[in-house]
Specification:
299 residues, alpha+beta, Hypothetical Protein Pfu-838710-001, 9-stranded mixed β-barrel, 9 helices, 24% helix
Length: 299
């Protein structure tokens, strides 16, 4: 038993669910896992903040090995998300994002669900890969997603234009209910009404056997402001060709658990970047809470 990692009971139950060979098809096995934790924005108001955080992170994760590399600026540009009044895309588990990525404008449509099967049967899966986002709060849980991206600077003005841009939506029954509404109900609005800028710092990794955890620190700022509105640490581990072993994945969960225990750096509220943005979307959403949809294939 000396080579095994002992997990806390909650992590063990979750990781067994994700790692056990219980999936019926290849489509329900994520091609990668990304682990995420929001950070306290007040800690990132100085030029030294990035280096200070990496130093604290290196100390916190020392039991797993030495972090390699340095967090350096690797990407920056505008970002925004779009939805209807009442946030009908969100209610169907859909996210519509426009950003500048690697100096190229990109429109992405993402479908999210609480189980692999809820998204793997979607028509969006035809040209996408199943991803798993593992979130630290309020307790460790996983959101599965599949996405399609297009190199495009044009934002669709309404749901009909969105369907023209992403024809796979025509085969999604829940979306057809939205697309049948009046043009006024279909109109798409930006969630952020100021110039939201994203900066990404990466270049740090942690070796786990034959695999690597690749870290990124993401900041969202209003263009003219130096203090961030949102800060997030994340790390990804690849599962291409289902090559990820159980022990490495279990260790990745433990790494997230250690990161979430960094009280001086952790964001106090239970949230994600997208949830934060929806909460600050100028009452675009209804007061009633929306949930991730469990979608079934269109007939």
């Amino acid at each position: 038993m000396s080579g095994l990692i002992r997990l806390p009971l909650g992590l063990l139950a979750l990781s067994v669910t994700l790692c056990a060979p219980s999936f019926a098809t290849h489509d329900t096995k994520p091609s990668s896992y990304e682990f995420k934790q929001l950070l306290a924005v007040a800690a990132f108001t100085t030029d030294a903040a990035i280096a200070n955080y990496q130093h604290a992170l290196t100390s916190q994760l020392a039991q797993f090995g030495e972090l390699q590399g340095k967090l350096t600026l690797t990407d920056s540009g505008p970002i925004n998300f779009y939805d209807t009044k009442g946030c009908q895309l969100k209610s169907q588990g859909l996210l519509l994002r426009h950003r500048q990525h690697k100096q190229q404008e990109q429109v992405t449509l993402k479908l999210r669900g609480l189980s692999p099967q809820s998204v793997s049967h979607s028509s969006l899966m035809a040209s996408g890969e199943l991803q798993a986002d593992v979130l630290a709060t309020p307790s460790i849980h996983t959101i599965y997603s599949v996405a399609q991206s297009q190199p495009n600077s044009t934002i669709p003005a309404n749901l009909n234009q969105l369907q023209q841009q992403f024809p796979a939506l025509a085969r999604m029954a829940p979306f057809q209910t939205l697309a049948s509404q009046t043009l006024g109900e279909q109109a798409l609005y930006p969630l952020s009404h100021f110039d939201l800028q994203q900066t990404v710092f990466s270049g740090v990794s942690l070796k786990l056997g034959e695999h690597k955890l690749k870290f990124s620190l993401t900041l969202w700022r209003e263009q003219a402001q130096s203090s961030p509105l949102v800060a997030e640490i994340s790390f990804a581990i690849n599962n291409k060709n289902n090559a990820l072993d159980t022990q490495s994945l279990q260790t990745a969960y433990l790494v997230l658990d250690k990161i979430s225990a960094m009280q001086d750096w952790r964001y106090a509220a239970n949230s994600t970047k997208n949830q934060w943005l929806y909460e600050h979307a100028d009452n675009l959403c209804d007061s009633e809470p929306t949930q991730l949809a469990t979608l079934t294939p269109a007939k």
